[in-house]
Amino acid sequence: MKMKSIAKVSLALGILATGVNTTTEQPVHAEKKPIEISQNSKKLKSYYTQSSVEYKNTTGYISSIQPNIKFMNVIQDNTVNNIALVGKDNQHYHAGVHRNLNIFYVAEDKRFNGGKYSIGGITKANDKAVDQIAEVRVVKEDHRGEYDYDFFPFKVDKEDMSLKEIDFKVRKHLIENYGLYGEMSSGRIIVQTKNYGRYTFELDKKLQEDRMSDIIDATSIERIEVVVKKA
């Protein structure tokens, strides 16, 4: 047998013995296409991943900048935090000093006279201690209509909570743990209370400014349901 033939036979026997695949350079799976994140999702992610600040049992001072524009000023650690009074807050808080307040502060992406401000998140301080957990059920839905379920706890430590606070905290958790505004870009949050209350937040939109001041009895939250859908 010629040397070339012997070499071919030896190579074939070696492949059979070792199971070596000589075509490993061929891709087994096609590469996944990169996820295209919309400008809307980027903007929402930027807003809902920023830091929030909470003040408990504090005092607010009303200032009227213009006839139709009022702010509540909360002074903490030599810092003045401005809260624009919009929606129900504008009707409820008039001139003067307001004590015994809880504040949930998140800076808006707009400025007033160059200064940062928040909207909503103002509630009365607790009359008694609250330590409850509301269950959040998350349903992840893909393009084929297949579902994946998960749960996480939502801490309730206030008698009253603003829709702003609930919406912000739930969305931030969804961004950090469930890919919201990445591979998951839309869906909704539904808060259900024991007295048949129902509050819905659409995940492809920022919470409306006039709803940021809406308040619910947080101790009555029965469950929170979330559906997130793939982009």
UniProtKB/TrEMBL annotation:
Domain Staphylococcal superantigen-like OB-fold: 42-126
InterPro entries in alphabetical order: Enterotoxin (IPR008992), SSL_OB (IPR015282), Staph_exotoxin (IPR008375), SuperAg_toxin_C (IPR016091), Superantigen_bac (IPR013307), Toxin_b-grasp_Staph/Strep (IPR006123)
SUPFAM superfamilies noted in UniProt: Bacterial enterotoxins (SSF50203), Superantigen toxins, C-terminal domain (SSF54334)
Record GO cellular component, one term: extracellular region
Top-level taxon of the source organism: Bacteria
Domain Staphylococcal/Streptococcal toxin beta-grasp, residue spans: 139-226
Family statement drawn from the similarity comment of this UniProt entry: Belongs to the staphylococcal/streptococcal toxin family.
Database matches in NCBIfam families: PRK13041.1
Protein name listed in UniProt: Exotoxin
Organism ancestry: Bacteria, Bacillati, Bacillota, Bacilli, Bacillales
